[in-house]
Amino acid sequence: MDRFDLVIIGGGINGAGIAQCASAAGFSVLLLEKGEIAEQTSANSSKLIHGGLRYLESGQLSLVRKSLSERRALLKLAPNLVKPIPFYIPVYENSQRSQWAIRAGLSAYALLSELDPLGQFKSLPAVQWPNIKGLKLQGLEAVFQYWDAQTDDKALTKSVVRSAVELGAKVLQGAECDALVHRPDHCEVSYLYQDERCKVTASCVVNATGPWVNKLIGCVTPPMAKEEVELIQGSHLLLDIPSPDGILYLESCFDERVVFVMPWEGKTLLGTTETTLASLDEKPQPTREESYYLLGIYRHYFPESGDIETLEAKIYDTFCGVRVLPKQAGQAFERSRELWLQSRESHPRFLTLYGGKLTTFRSTAKEVTHWLHERLGERVEIADIDRLPLY
């Protein structure tokens, strides 16, 4: 039976990042993905590498600082995959967030970016407002422009996996783990691969299965407790409308949420929503309510784009990502996006990842590798991921 220091289950961005980081640190790594690499949530995000300006409202300063640091690193390490893009925030006379509140938030954002040139922002003069083609000008009081970054999430994840393989990680697609036995000194991981049942021994196992995190825990022997979570669907609509020059950060006209209007593949991408899912028995699809929600916001800010039926006819494609959030009272929009790493005393060799963000996958990988060092000791480092370019 093959033995690895670490078996990672789940080939999304977090699993990919952990495979790269742990391999670079000198550990032997096996990554199992039941489908294709980056096929699920990591291919269905809002395509943003950003600090999370809106997280300032809920006081998540450490997450914003960490995200801005990771944005800076990815712009340097993956310039062909992660690119700066201007964001625009229009403020109207009836906006819930005043222009002074937006200015204060952007000032804090700039401060937390630690003198990064992308931390700069400005208020556009009124003469430039019509340059944002189609944007409603009636009642407009200010337009702020700041910077974040955009990426192809699937391509980025695959690039990180390639880097992990170059560092010695073994990666299997189409490998579904269906049983895991936790023993005092190791774990036995069973999986189906190419119609054969396979088994490997792992010193440690990481559960990076995203929305299926508790399903995998149900395969563990002896049984272990699961955390209560909610699966939150984030839907996106790709409209057959020429793409905007930058990204519009829009306050929803229906609630307190924020929605983005983004360029993507020459078209206009709208996202995202927050709808609780009861299960993942089928592939997530945007509901009619979600589509009308996004189209209604777009029409509110771009009134010349036509009525809802006209816009609905322009839907070129749709996709949904699924977030894992702690089950709490209140709206999903207000809950923390901080990663939650869980290792129980009863199963000290098994680590579960709850939540996490595309932007901070490298930070997550470093935390998990630190956990691995604590359990298995040091290894001879092969490479420094802070110096490894991603192509």
TrEMBL record:
<dbReference type="Pfam" id="PF01266">
    <property type="entry name" value="DAO"/>
</dbReference>
<comment type="similarity">
    <text>Belongs to the FAD-dependent glycerol-3-phosphate dehydrogenase family.</text>
</comment>
<protein>
    <submittedName>
        <fullName>FAD dependent oxidoreductase</fullName>
    </submittedName>
</protein>
<keyword id="KW-0560">Oxidoreductase</keyword>
<dbReference type="InterPro" id="IPR036188">
    <property type="entry name" value="FAD/NAD-bd_sf"/>
</dbReference>
<dbReference type="InterPro" id="IPR000447">
    <property type="entry name" value="G3P_DH_FAD-dep"/>
</dbReference>
<feature type="domain" description="FAD dependent oxidoreductase">
    <location>
        <begin position="5"/>
        <end position="360"/>
    </location>
</feature>
<keyword id="KW-0274">FAD</keyword>
<keyword id="KW-0285">Flavoprotein</keyword>
<dbReference type="InterPro" id="IPR006076">
    <property type="entry name" value="FAD-dep_OxRdtase"/>
</dbReference>
<dbReference type="GO" id="GO:0046168">
    <property type="term" value="P:glycerol-3-phosphate catabolic process"/>
</dbReference>
<dbReference type="GO" id="GO:0004368">
    <property type="term" value="F:glycerol-3-phosphate dehydrogenase (quinone) activity"/>
</dbReference>
